[in-house]
């Protein structure tokens, strides 16, 4: 099948590359000529495991093309995916101007039946607006052509996007129940047939329900995370271990284990934006999503928890201290720094006077840009921020290490390494990656999220721990929870 993808951002690029890999001819349109040239030459504007190989192979084999030629892009694909960015405006609402520009261009240039697939995450009702714009352009150019606008939201996780596309849990398609809508649905069934395992992955529904499904999925996942984060903070106060609680409740199949990992708060381009957008949609529809509003504010608070634990330990003053920060991207296997919890943490450490030595396997440049933005008025603080190539180098002489992103590289940090390298073997584990009980028994204090009291309580059993480690202020950690 011939497919056009409008926008080679994260979603557009993964979708285009994977559809080409499945044997379709794919035309990817982007207005950024430099990006088009980079992709056409086999380069990669983002870090996503497995994507570069797929792009290179399909470009070489002639199934995947990148271009800035709008007219040619509309002429090419029977199916036109709109996968452009919808950045938040100052008031938090989604800026849909790129979606609407794409819709107008399709209407202006189309010369036969087209399926327009709304792939970007957009407020409920946007597909109807897209249809109106296509129709208006057709009329303005005196064309009487059929088309259908379909909602087909993406559920790709950064770091696992290729796998998510090739083996989806579900493929949601919202289509109108009219002749063009049924024709569109038939084309999408054909397009997705190779990944529609057992013919049971496709969920067909009306357009508005499909648009809402995307928000509902992310809102549900964000709710689980915020709920667990709040329980973790309570566990800190009670001396319970949130990891054991997670296992205890996750074993109930009605609850399940996924997305119950307490941590430093959720980030990324989707959860914060989509939760915010759904709250707004509810408000503008005359109702309220009180639970979701609380989810959002709980997450903002959670992003401070790790910093508060560090500050509480050092009495609020980090002057003369060196803090190692491991992991900067909002999650592993991505270089994405959007809404990353590390941003507030690093800024807070620097503002409290610390020298910060950071490591991230891939997000270093993006992190530097993000922090330059966040600390725009405080350039002197940036001078106290350095990066290292290896996690072990970050530990050298550090007063504490803070794990913010659970890259697999950090799972192997051992007590002996921490004791050998650091000035004080003290870990603040923002992703509950390490076993605080085991570390404590080997003389390393490890303060997790919802498990720090466990570590502190059992510290008493630790064999001859260094003096500073025993000085972990139990009262302060409790008070700040
Ligand atoms: C999410 C959705 O999972 C995906 O379906 C949608 O298409 C886009 O948004 P993504 O933002 O790539 O994907 O990352 P995800 O793996 O969902 O994690 C989001 C955030 O939640 C990360 O900051 C992660 O660290 C955090 N998280 C996740 C937790 O804090 N605890 C968990 O148990 C799971």
UniProtKB/TrEMBL annotation:
It catalyses: UDP-alpha-D-glucose + 2 NAD(+) + H2O = UDP-alpha-D-glucuronate + 2 NADH + 3 H(+). InterPro entries: 6-PGluconate_DH-like_C_sf, NAD(P)-bd_dom_sf, UDP-Glc/GDP-Man, UDP-Glc/GDP-Man_DH_C, UDP-Glc/GDP-Man_DH_C_sf, UDP-Glc/GDP-Man_DH_dimer, UDP-Glc/GDP-Man_DH_N, UDPglc_DH_bac. The keyword Protein biosynthesis does not apply. NAD(+) binds at residues 30, 35, 86, 121, 158, 273, 338. Substrate binds at residues 155-158, 214, 259-263, 267, 331. Keywords: NAD, Oxidoreductase. Residues 324-436 form the UDP-glucose/GDP-mannose dehydrogenase C-terminal domain. GO terms for molecular function: NAD binding; UDP-glucose 6-dehydrogenase activity. Pfam families: UDPG_MGDP_dh (PF00984), UDPG_MGDP_dh_C (PF03720), UDPG_MGDP_dh_N (PF03721). One of its GO terms (biological process) is UDP-glucuronate biosynthetic process. The keyword Aminoacyl-tRNA synthetase does not apply. Its EC number is 1.1.1.22. The active site is at residue 270. Signal peptide: none annotated. Pathway: Nucleotide-sugar biosynthesis; UDP-alpha-D-glucuronate biosynthesis; UDP-alpha-D-glucuronate from UDP-alpha-D-glucose: step 1/1. It comes from the Bacteria. Belongs to the UDP-glucose/GDP-mannose dehydrogenase family. PANTHER family: UDP-GLUCOSE 6-DEHYDROGENASE TUAD (PTHR43750:SF3). This is UDP-glucose 6-dehydrogenase.
């Amino acid at each position: 099948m011939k497919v056009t993808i409008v926008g080679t951002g994260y979603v557009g690029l993964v979708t285009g590359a994977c559809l080409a890999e499945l044997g379709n001819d794919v035309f990817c349109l982007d207005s950024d000529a430099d990006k088009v040239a980079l992709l056409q030459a086999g380069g990669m504007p983002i870090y996503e495991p497995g994507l570069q190989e797929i792009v290179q192979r399909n470009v070489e084999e002639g199934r995947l093309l990148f271009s800035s030629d709008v007219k040619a892009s509309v002429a090419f694909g029977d199916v036109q995916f709109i996968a452009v960015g919808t950045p938040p405006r100052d008031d938090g609402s989604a800026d849909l101007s790129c979606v609407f520009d794409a819709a107008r261009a399709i209407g202006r240039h189309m010369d036969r039946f087209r399926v327009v697939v709304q792939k970007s995450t957009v407020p409920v009702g946007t597909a109807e607006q897209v249809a109106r714009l296509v129709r208006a352009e057709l009329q303005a150019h005196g064309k009487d052509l059929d088309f259908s606008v379909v909602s087909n939201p993406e559920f790709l996780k950064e770091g696992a996007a290729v796998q998510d596309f090739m083996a989806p849990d579900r493929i949601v398609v919202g289509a109108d129940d009219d002749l063009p809508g049924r024709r569109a649905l038939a084309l999408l069934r054909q397009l997705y047939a190779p990944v529609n395992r057992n013919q049971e992955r496709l969920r067909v529904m009306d357009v508005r329900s499909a648009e809402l499904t995307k928000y509902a999925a992310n809102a549900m996942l964000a709710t689980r995370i915020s709920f667990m984060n709040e329980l973790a903070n309570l566990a800190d106060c009670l001396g319970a271990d949130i990891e054991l609680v997670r296992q205890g409740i996750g074993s109930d199949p009605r609850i399940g284990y996924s997305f119950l990992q307490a941590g430093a708060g959720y980030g990324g381009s989707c959860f914060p934006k989509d939760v915010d957008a759904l709250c707004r949609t509810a408000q503008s529809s005359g109702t309220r999503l009180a639970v979701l509003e609380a989810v959002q504010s709980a997450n903002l608070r959670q992003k401070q928890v790790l910093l508060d634990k560090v500050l509480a330990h050092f009495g609020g003053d980090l002057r003369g201290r060196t803090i190692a920060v491991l992991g900067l991207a909002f999650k592993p296997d991505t270089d994405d720094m959007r809404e990353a919890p590390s941003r507030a943490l690093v800024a807070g450490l620097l503002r409290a006077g610390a020298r910060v030595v950071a490591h991230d396997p891939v997000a270093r440049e993006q992190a530097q840009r993000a922090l330059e933005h966040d600390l725009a008025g405080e350039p002197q603080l940036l001078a106290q921020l350095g990066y290292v190539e290896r996690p072990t180098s970050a530990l050298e002489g550090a007063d504490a290490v803070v794990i913010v992103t659970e890259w697999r590289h950090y799972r192997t940090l051992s007590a002996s390494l921490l004791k050998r390298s650091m000035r004080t073997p003290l870990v603040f584990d923002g992703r509950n990656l390490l076993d605080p009980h085991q570390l404590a028994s080997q003389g390393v204090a490890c303060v997790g999220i919802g498990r720090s009291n466990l570590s502190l309580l059992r510290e008493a059993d630790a064999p001859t721990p260094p003096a500073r480690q025993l000085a972990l202020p139990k009262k302060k950690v409790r008070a700040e929870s």
